[in-house]
Amino acid sequence: VRATAKKRVLVYGANDDGELVLYALHHRFQERMTVVGMLDDDPNRVGTSIRGVRVLGGSEDAERLIRELNVDELIISSPAVSSDQLNQLKAASNALGIKLRTGSLRFEDIG
Predict the structure, then answer these.
(1) Edge to edge, what strands does the sheet with 99-102 contain?
(2) How many CB atoms lie within 10 A of CB 83?
(3) I need a labelling partner for 59 at 20 to 30 A (CA). Which of 24, 45, 70, 79 fits?
(4) Which residues pair with 11 in a beta bridge?
């Protein structure tokens, strides 16, 4: 039986939502995925780390980082992403043929 390689994942959103996505990826999907970095358009977050994962740049850096880091999947952690940022992330993902997903924790009123 051949072991399958872990998917290399880049997470957009170095905020509370991003930290929750990192936690979930580490605790629920660590056998299948490894996070190779994060993206955020807040320049104050670039260069910092969350749960040991570096924030490497913003959405304008997505295509370059996906290529350099051999990323298989880009996960958007925040539902608050702007349409311009989303378009940049979609364009980068489509140009390089990788999967783009959202992964956020949402609470909804049920009563």
Answers:
(1) 49-50, 53-57, 33-39, 7-12, 73-76, 99-102
(2) 7
(3) 24
(4) 38, 75
- Residue 24's CB is within 10 A of a number of other CB atoms, namely 15
C-alpha 78/C-alpha 96 separation (Å) is 22
The pLDDT tens digits for 21-77 are 999 898 888 889 999 999 999 999 999 999 999 999 999 999 999 999 999 999 999
Dist CA 26 CA 91 (whole Å): 27
Give the type of residue at 80.
A
pLDDT at 105: 61
- DSSP for 73-106 reads EEEE--TT--HHHHHHHHHHHHHHT-EEEE----
Could you tell me if 12 and 59 are in contact, meaning their C-beta atoms sit under 8 angstroms apart?
A: yes
For residues 108 and 46, the model is more confident at 46
User: Is there a contact between 58 and 40 (Cβ–Cβ < 8 Å)?
Assistant: yes
